[in-house]
């Protein structure tokens, strides 16, 4: 069932356009799950109001992002759309791409015989502007004039001709979404799952990898990785099955500030900025996620000269590793797979002291304490409210970056149980 977000194009207490959307919600309940959104919840648009203070705007953008399609129901005010609706669309087009390629449909009710035709033309023009770039279904006009006569007292659209037209247009809209999603699957998602130049190799100083191997390495290692690039945009995520943080290609390219609840943004940006400024290299967060113990680590990604390239978020369950530890896998003389002690007291000395390297066959001394643990650079100032573990002591400082007191995900703002 398609999820449709339907915006009431006015902030009036009583509205025939709201009545129309309520009728559509009931009438098409077998075809679509329609959620009606009141634009009266939004403040008037202004470029001077910081987006970081606009929780309601952020919520609306999340709803648009999650919807398969958006319906705008517009009244006609002075041959144009109401100011409140224009303001809502400005929020949806300013420093965001939530409407980009989003299937949208325009409907409208007005008193006049022209039935909101002129405001709908204006609405269509706005929706195809570069900053909206919505995927507007062509034709498909739902023009409902004479508002005071065409609805019953209980809110049903009782004009047969108008209702037939509405049914036809809404059915087209749902079909259009379906077709668009299939195109989207092949045209957009496939290149992400299948690197295009599958024969090419990347030559590293330490060997070469095919693009396919790179892709499959990221799918195979038990940790998932996300990249926020140096311009603070969500650039890439590893295509690992059963990810802890479920990602969507629709979020790729979004500014990191857009991917978070506004209240989480300062803490997330504090991590990123401390990496960019060279004050820190690592932030570690042990968390309970999806019912198991997990570790999130943010790393500053730098080139060989130390220039900031972005932030990577490294996330995975550590249940398996902790389980081994708890079974005593690293206790001296223990068998790593079972935790059971492997050697008798009279076992040959070299077996006690050597471990084979699976890739080269070289052996390392078990007494070698030169591990590669990297301690985070001392923080000049910690972002308020980030749960962080001190790499030296394992002590954890409590807190949360999420507005609702859950720990926020630096890439998308998804929150996990603590
Ligand atoms: C400021 C204003 C301007 C209006 N201009 C038009 C108009 O140009 N064309 C029209 O058909 N109706 C016009 N109307 C009447 C609206 O169609 C009518 O108020 C309608 O109910 C508005 O939709 P709503 O009930 O969803 O708020 C205007 C109403 C207002 C308040």
UniProtKB/TrEMBL annotation:
Q: Where is this region: Disordered?
A: 333-418
Show where the NADPH-dependent FMN reductase-like domain sits.
3-148
Q: Which segments show compositional bias classed as Low complexity?
A: 371-381, 409-418
Q: Which residues form a coiled coil?
A: none
Q: Which InterPro entries match?
A: Flavoprotein-like_sf, FMN_Rdtase-like_dom, NAD(P)H-dep_reductase
**What residue stretch is flagged as signal peptide?**
none
Could you tell me what this protein is called? NAD(P)H-dependent oxidoreductase
